[in-house]
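Task 17 of the worksheet. Students: predict the tertiary structure of the chain below and write it out as structure tokens. Keep your answer in the requested format; marks are given for formatting as well as content.
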Amino acid sequence: MTDNNRNCIRTYHASDRRWSLHHGKVETVLPILGNFLYDGALFDPPYALKFMGKDWDKALPSIDVFRQMLKVCKPGAYLLAFGHPKTFHRLMVNIEEAGWKIHDTLSWIHGEGFPKSHNIGKAINKTLPSSKQAADWEGYGTGLKPAWEPIILAQKPRKGTFAK
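Model answer:
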């Protein structure tokens, strides 16, 4: 979505109406949904990395967002929330503080992506242009290649037992 229509909500329903997908800004979508409707939620929020200086990635979703998600989900519903290795611990705290029960952390392992780190060779070259040391350190970085994304598995408290 462009910044001009960030509050736009698009909803897709299965032909049998047994499921729906809502696409839009979570702060806009959740308030219009009814209570206790959903069996689960899949959420890929901003990671609070300030990715490429973009405003949409400045902060993690607040505790209130996860409280609203709790409200629209049925008791016992599951939440899968994607995170980033650097910030998912804070995301998990917000989810738990909202009332969700944390069950586990899953991992999405992948090989794509590139290290978003400081190139030591380029830094040396800026400080000492044409230095042999810059060439020796070219390609070395200060961060690891992102090869996994944590997925937080949480559950809205159940009423009764699993058997019920």
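Marker's comment: The helical segments are 26-29, 63-72, 88-97, 120-127, 132-137. The beta strands are 10-13, 20-23, 38-43, 73-82, 101-109, 148-155.
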